Amino acid sequence: MQVIVKFFIHGVIVTVLSLSLMIVVKSNLTGFLCFSPPIGTGFLIVTLAFVIPIFVGLVNAITVKRIWDVEFEKYSFWTNGFMLFLLVSSVHMVFNFLLNYWIAVLLTVALSPLMSFVGKYFAEE
Amino acid sequence: MNILKACLSICLIVSLILFQLFFPYFAYSLTSNSNNALTVGIYYSFLSEESGEIFDSLSRMKNMGIKVVKIWCEIDPYNPSSEVNNKTIEFFNNINYFGCFEIALIVYNVPVEKVSYFLQNYGKYVKYIQLLNEPEAMKSWAEGAFLMDEELMKVFLTYKNITDTYCPNAIYYTNFSPGFILRPNLAIEFSKYLNFVGFDPYTEAVHYLTPRYIEFLHSLTGKEVIISEFGASNVDEHRQADLIISYLNLFKKMGISQAWIWSWNDPIMGIKGKLAEQKVAEWIASNS
Fold this sequence. Notes:
Oligomer: heterodimer
Structural class of chain B: alpha/beta
Order of helices and strands of chain A: HHHHHH
Number of helices of chain A: 6
Shape of chain A: flat
Distance between the termini of chain A: 22 Å
Low-confidence stretches of chain A: none
Distance between the termini of chain B: 58 Å
Structural class of chain A: mainly alpha
Number of strands of chain A: 0
Helix content of chain A: over 70%
Helix content of chain B: 40-55%
Mean pLDDT of chain A: 91
Radius of gyration of chain B: 21 Å
Strand content of chain B: 5-15%
Number of helices of chain B: 9
Largest interface: A-B, 26 and 24 residues
Strand content of chain A: under 5%
Largest sheet of chain A: none
């Protein structure tokens, strides 16, 4: 597989996963916040800061191992996942400020090789 | 994971969190949205004025370009000739005379008979009704003893029923301080009965986070967000004027339709006779 294809596939997996989780959380925001306030807000923070990052970090590590065939760092799921999730959501936020929401989603996916580069660099041992 | 990568990833995480918090402010500051018409209003405590001063104050507000005057529900239903009632009569006579102001009435912490009596007599002048005041921080019997959600909703609906009777065409809103993020369910619940929601940013720290708060409030309620109170202490007149003008510039760029200053004649926050009065007048003249 060519390097550019590897970057693209890895990037799309990480970016689409992060964006999907972001959209799911956003569409359930009211449910989170209305659940026994402020306990629901606490759940939202835990979801955004721990559950999603660990999941994204895990998927990133497995993808790095499968696509790039390199050993991944076993103790940094959370930081890698958090960084990737923040990076994807920040890029989307900038595009969303300038353009339509769904065009911003498409442009963020188009920048997925960048996410792949960051994900690989920090995940490999 | 080597130490360099660990440090770099932590730095990136912190930077991205800060970027997400402050990006909307800087993005709006750099944009130019000169087509948006921002209506400026002000809170006016006419009871603390001498009787002749009300005409003078309203005339100065008119000259500044103020369109909305926000007032408390001040009336004495048991003594028609009381000083409170005389000043209220004088205030509305002047409002009638000038004919260019819209009235926003704050209905909060006031007996229901007072609200009924006020609206019976002056309901025709009232365009906007503010139900409660920053409900997320409303106290019951002591500092820190916040009213529960059910208690707040009960008070809210009691006021709403009265105001609906006397002012069926009024535009309703409730204002929220930045503390609403701790009780966001209140904004969601109340917004079902409101035409728009108000946000009250004060201080310089909140200034940078205002676009974030407004976006969040709008996404929660699905209603238009206006600025129902903003201002600064007049201890340093220059600082007060600068902060109010930079808030006005930000609101205009964000496409906000109404921004109401707190306040005209408050001893601490008032702009009457201060540099801010002149600066706001100049700002309105150059942005209308």
